[in-house]
Amino acid sequence: MSLYVYVLQGKGLLVKDACFVLQVGKHKSKTRVFRNNSNHVWNEEFVFRVHGNNDQQELVVSVFNHDDVDDFGSFFNGSGDLVGRVQIPVWSVAAEQNQTLPPTWFSLEKPMTGKFINMDCGKILLSLSLRRKSDKSSTNHIVYPNSNVNEEYKESEGPTRIIS
Fold first, then answer.
1. DSSP states of 134-153 as a string?
2. How would you classify residue 80: left for phi > 0, otherwise alpha for psi between -120 and 50, otherwise beta?
3. Cα–Cα distance between 4 and 100 in angstroms, integer?
């Protein structure tokens, strides 16, 4: 089974050079970096393979200030200045109708250390979907190519657990 993660946009992020690092288990990916931009619209898709028991697996999305990271590898080693983070259990996607979580704003948890420790970290707009390899249904209907910051989307109410 595969977890499709659609990183749509961010709002209220504390940095202009933001980058998201996504992780499921030992597998990590990152979004492209926006330079000197306060309007963060990514519209990027990531696919992670998930196995067996979804109760144990989580998607962790971390936002970093790109200026504080000197190379690509340091993102994956946890260096750089963490702006905020959210953790989403895979079971929460499996429990949704059609195993798809529609575009939802997730509030970023403040980091325990660093320069963003006592600040509102902003929100990220994500959509998640679980698909079997044999599923022929398209997931293109989830991505919004010209995402509009003013559109209203569901606010995260529950199944996320924040980590520090």
1. T-----TTT--TT--TTS--
2. left
3. 9
Indicate the SS3 state at residue 112. Answer: coil
Distance (Å, whole) CA 106 – CA 8: 11
Q: Which helix (H) or strand (E) holds 91?
A: helix 90-94
User: With contact defined as beta carbons under 8 Å apart, do 31 and 43 qualify?
Assistant: no
- 139 CB-near residues (< 8 Å, 6+ apart): 4, 45, 129, 131
In this prediction the pTM is 0.75
The CA distance from 132 to 49, in Å, is 10
Q: For 56-85, write each residue's pLDDT tens digit.
A: 899 999 998 876 544 445 545 544 688 889
Cα distance between residue 10 and residue 8, in whole Å: 7
Tell me, what's the pLDDT at 49? 93
Flag whether pLDDT at 163 surpasses 70.
Answer: no
Integer Cα distance of 56 and 59 in angstroms: 11
Quote the distance between the C-alpha of residue 51 and its chain's center. Answer: 20
Q: Going along 36-137, which residue ranges are E strands?
A: 40-49, 58-65, 81-89, 100-107, 123-131
